[in-house]
Amino acid sequence: MALSMEQKLALNVYKLDKEAHITIDKSACRRCGDKYCLRVCPAHLFTLDDKGDVDFNYEGCLECGTCLISCIECALSWSYPRGGFGVEYRFG
Ligand code: SF4
Ligand code: SF4
Q1: What is the DSSP letter of 80?
Q2: pLDDT, tens digit, for every residue of 4-54?
Q3: Phi, psi of 22 (to 5 degrees)
Q4: I need a surface site. Which of 16, 17, 50, 88 has the fewest CB within 10 A?
Q5: Could you name the CATH architecture of 5-88?
Q6: What gap in Å lies between CA 71 and CA 36, rounded to an integer?
Q7: CA 24: distance to chain centroid?
Q8: pTM for the structure as a whole
């Protein structure tokens, strides 16, 4: 039986770096009307807090870069995790 996308993502292993490899400039996010990051991140790591500000958690990042190319306000400071950290893809 074919695995769902959620089941496939659950196979991945993450080695978490205490240093965030992606950070967001929240003041830029407040100017951003479309907030594409909320919709394009395949791991759903961008959310809105109670005040309507964008919140971001780098844990579980798939390192795909989609958020970077979709951020029209250039609010992201984006890099790959340091060597030895980040996602390790597993294919079952
Ligand atoms: S798309 Fe960029 S500027 Fe807009 S809310 Fe997301 S991270 Fe912030
Ligand atoms: S690199 Fe991909 S998985 Fe990581 S936060 Fe950006 S869109 Fe989400």
Answers
A1: P
A2: 888 888 899 999 999 999 999 999 999 999 999 999 999 999 999 999 999
A3: -135, 130
A4: 50
A5: 2-Layer Sandwich (3.30)
A6: 7
A7: 11
A8: 0.91
